[in-house]
Amino acid sequence: MKKVVSLSKNLVAWLGIASQTSALDWKHLDLRNLESFAKFRAGAESFSKIGFNNKPINTNKGLYPTETFVTIVAYLQLDFPELLPKNATANGHHMSGSLGGFGGGLMYDGTKHLINEATGKPYGDMAWNYFGYWGGLVGQKPWAQCWYGAGGGSQASYAGKSAAQLQAMSDATSIGGVNTADCIQGYADNARQYVIYNAYIDYSYKNIFRFRGGRYESPADYMSGYTQGLDMTLNLNHFKFWWFSSFGRGFAYNEWLYNFYSPKTYTLADGKKINPGVHAFYITWEYKGFSVVPFVYFSPNNEYSPCFTLMYDSNPKFKGIGWRSQTDITVLNPFYAKRFWDTYQFGMISHRNAHSLMIKQRFDYNNYNFGGGIYQNFGNANWMIGYHGNRLGFDFWDNTVYANTINSLSYMMDSNAFTAFLFGGGVYKKWLWGLIGRLTYGPRADEQVFAFNVGYQFSKRFYADIKVEYYNQIMHRGYKIGWNGPFLPDQPATDQDRSHIFTEIKVKL
Fold this sequence. Notes:
By secondary structure, the chain is mostly beta strands. Helix content is about 10%, strand content about 50%. It contains 5 helices and 30 strands. It has an 18-stranded antiparallel barrel. A 3-stranded antiparallel β-sheet has the order 6-21-22, with no helix packed on it. Strand 27 and strand 28 form a beta hairpin. The model is unreliable at about 1-30 (pLDDT under 50). This is Outer membrane protein HofF. InterPro entries: Put_OMP.
């Protein structure tokens, strides 16, 4: 963070913005015009997820409910729309900034007292997976030294194990000498339910160059949420060059609240864990609605992902009137560090590299839209890049919080899984509506999903919406929720209901 602030200060000095002729004259700042210089924003929001499956937890059988929880949050933000004087802005220089904080709590947590039938004891509070996760920037906090998902590790470590031995390993309730319920509760007891999500400077020169540094909402396709870092844009005729570096990721939303953490870490030879960051470089060529976008994401000593996107937009200046067609083809090609080869990641084997293909078609007609697409994984392509951001345009974090031992990630992100989806929606006066259906076929699970959402803008300051989702999940024989290791020959198939309702209320003060 200090490096980001230092870089932004050096950039300002280099541009001469702080010179005598163009510096902010704080002495003569007219306090009567303070509102034009700084703007306050504040609000309160609430989110709820109501799961329809309330069956007991049984870790031996791999049976888990769909969670229910309710949040309430508030935020306060101070925006600086323009920090430079008129003689600088007249020459194309602009600088803005923002400082904002976000916090809240759980009004209801349905995971708190659930009993594990396999042990007769509480499983542990799991709501922190959505709201409050905190283990330190690189997971260095004492309670973050354990994990509760059985399995994982190298493929070789399971060599020679019988079906009965593998099944017994999958039933384990103590991992690395730590009881899994105690591990889970450790995260819950140390949840941090607040975050400074905005603290940045944004400088631009005409439409040629832009620099942002600090904490702000991430613009990166494959790093959603809020980022702690910097990005730079250079526009030259039909080309745009964009660099992105993130040294922390956080969430400040009514469903998700995470203080900043590093999604990628690396352990040095002396045992010290460091934050190498996640970085991206995009080159975009645009011409008459066509876009060719080669890009690369990388995290030193973790992954290197050369990728590309091809797009066509029949009406780039579409304003909600008339017809528009948008085509998006994106290919991911992650290559993993050698220590990850032939290891189990998110419950699926990972090799040297993998691929994913997304083809998405959208049509707009006035205020209505519809379309569809496919998402095909070749190998374990998403556990390092695709799971923390994607161009799909819909929520794939709608599984149970117990799934995959990481949040509520859908099995459509699994190795070799294929998904087809259709969607539609529109805006009518103060109403907003949408629907989506998807079918996923994967080695671990098949999923059938249909969701309908509707929202209403009651006033300029009050908005509410609701989503009802049917979600059927068929876990195939040999696969078990909560197990991240190899195929289990003795594990029977299960059919589990993941249907739920989302509600959301937003009030701007």
